[in-house]
Amino acid sequence: MKTFSRVASIFLILMITACSRSEDPERPETPEDVDIRPDVVFTRADDSPLHIYVESQGIVEPIRDVTIRPRISGFITEAVLEEGSRVNQGDLLISFDQQEWEYELNQAENDYQTALSEFTIEKQQREASGRGSDDNDRMLKISTGLAEAELAVERAELNLSYTTIFAPFSGELIVPERLSVGAYIPSGTELGRLLDDSTVLIRFDVLESEINRLKEGMQVDLRTPSGVIKTGRIRALSPVIDSESKTGQVITEVENRDRALRPGMTVEGRIRVETYEGKARVPRSAILERDGGRTLLFKLNGETVEWVYVEPEFATSDWAIINHEEITPGDTIAIDRHFALSHLQQVRARMAGQIILEESVEEAEE
């Protein structure tokens, strides 16, 4: 009986082992002749110059900006203040009821005539007695009230002129609230603003270490948030440096008749201060540093990369100028996925942008 149990157990173990082996999937072996090459991104060297720029951001300001405030109080009889309206120099913006101010002028003129009569009589009497002179005339005007009456007439005429407000220059109106005919407006009330943005100013903050590289008249390249490109000129440089921010202001003047630059808009600006030229220009990302501080780049030769030790003549965060006999414009230079490459290694070359395109296609297919 025991022998039978042992035989049954052994048979059961063999059956389980056979089943587990039959259920295992086949494991393909990796062929020894598979050629695994890394994908490396390349671009071509060129012979363009390397420009150095001072860059900053600034806020657009109109060349002229006035606040519309009446200098008298009164009731509105006509108003042409509309938000966003374009007006020409000399156009009427607002007018007030003139009746009160005409009455004031008439009263001042009557007072003037009364004072003038008193002055004339007194002067004639003094001249008859031999006391007439220019100095006495001035004192006589004061004593008879003529001097004060003259000032009152001038003030009344001035107040009457304030009953109409005309545009001092051509521009665009900014009006926070619509004004209605018949409304009473106290003197000094801010009714809106008139902007002349046919030319604009942009103030850029520049580091104290860079401002001395700039001069009046230098060209400034501008870019708006929407991508519009414009060109301006340095109008003035701040004579002082902010002690906290350690920056100075650069004021740029820009022609803006198309109104692409709107007051209050933030724009990017850059000013070319230096230019470097050399045999070849390559992206800064192509330059790698090895042990010992030596720098090199990888140049594609067929399907193989070879390293070339180079010392850039000048470099920025984006570009480097190379003067080396083995690097010429048109050479294919590695710029990405090249950090672990070795000399004379075979690679799968992809030009800049190609891999991104392929990855986008694969994502779309998924």
Low-confidence stretches: 1-5, 10-14, 16-25, 355-366
Percent of residues in helices comes to 10-25%
CATH class of the largest domain: Mainly Beta
CATH topology of the largest domain: conserved putative lor/sdh protein from methanococcus maripaludis s2 fold
Strand content: 35-45%
CATH architecture name of the largest domain: Beta Barrel
Radius of gyration, rounded? 43 Å
Mean pLDDT: 86
Largest sheet: 6 strands, antiparallel, barrel
User: From N to C, what is the helix and strand string?
Assistant: HEEEEEHHHEEEEEEEEEEEEEEEEEH
Number of domains: 4
Structure annotation, total helices: 5
Which overall shape is indicated by the principal axes computed on the Cα atoms? elongated
Give the strand line-up of the largest sheet.
Answer: 2-9-12-11-10-13
- Helix/strand structural class: alpha+beta
| Ends distance | 63 Å
Number of strands: 22
Please tell me about this protein's structure.
The chain is of the alpha+beta class and 366 residues long. It has four domains: 39-49 and 278-360, Beta Barrel (conserved putative lor/sdh protein from methanococcus maripaludis s2 fold), CATH 2.40.420.20; 52-62 and 194-276, Efflux pump adaptor protein, beta barrel domain (Elongation Factor Tu (Ef-tu), domain 3, Beta Barrel); 70-97 and 163-189, RNA polymerase II/Efflux pump adaptor protein, barrel-sandwich hybrid domain (OB fold (Dihydrolipoamide Acetyltransferase, E2P)), CATH 2.40.50.100; 99-161. Helices cover 25% and strands 36% of the residues. It is built from five helices and 22 strands. The chain has helices at 2-23, 99-128, 134-144, 146-161, 354-365; strands at 39-44, 50-68, 74-79, 86-87, 92-96, 164-166, 171-174, 184-185, 192-207, 219-223, 229-237, 247-255, 266-276, 280-283, 288-289, 295-301, 304-309, 314-315, 319-322, 332-336, 345-346, 348-351. It has a six-stranded antiparallel beta barrel with strand order 2-9-12-11-10-13. Strands 6-5-3-8 form a four-stranded antiparallel sheet, with no helix packed on it. It has a four-stranded antiparallel sheet with strand order 15-16-17-21, with no helix packed on it. Helix 2 crosses helix 3 (134-144) and helix 2 (99-128) packs antiparallel against helix 4. The chain starts with a helix and ends with a helix. The model is unreliable at 1-5, 10-14, 16-25 and 355-366 (pLDDT under 50).
